[in-house]
User: What shape does this take?
Amino acid sequence: SLLRSANIDMQQLQRDVMEARTRRTRSTSGRRMLQNDAGEWRCSGCGFYKPAESFHRRSSGKHGINSQCKSCSSETNAVYRRTLRGHISVLLGHARAANRRRGQQLELDSEWVLCTLLSQNG
Assistant: This one.
């Protein structure tokens, strides 16, 4: 029985792996957390002013809230999870959690997964 019916484009897979190995830096693009007279904060994603309840808390942040509102943060995370790097990160996170419940430690990392993808041709 065939496990995979579609052919894998190895050149595309190699490009995806190279991109997944590249850590992107986030651009601040000059958008600072600004508060208006009504006490609302500007979202660095959409640029709209919203009440603090529309932002996730972030104890390490200067103002105690995330720079993106909840809806922009959700969209940013969804876009990241659709990338190879994001998908691997989610899968490894689930595997780590399962291993913690079993009292075990996970020895895999994203580089191992990427190498395995390439060595097995997808």
Remarks:
- Residues 6 and 122 are 11 Å apart (CA to CA).
- The chain has a mean pLDDT of 87.
- Helices lie at 10-21, 70-81, 84-101, 110-119.
